[in-house]
Amino acid sequence: MDRGRAKSTMATTAAVGCMKTLLMIFNFIFWVTGIAILALGIWTKVDLYKYMELSAIYYKDSPWILIAVGALIVIVGSFGCCCTFKGNVMLLYLYGFFLIVVFAVELGAGAAGFFYKGKLEQGFSEGLDNALKQYGNGSEAMDELQSQLQCCGKNSYEDWFSTPWERTVNTTSGVPHSCCRIPDTSCNNMNVNANSTYIYQQGCYNKVVGFMKSNMALIAGVAFGISFFQLLGALLACCLAKRVKKSNYEQVA
Question: Where in the chain is the domain with CATH 1.10.1450.10?
Answer without folding.
Answer: 121-204
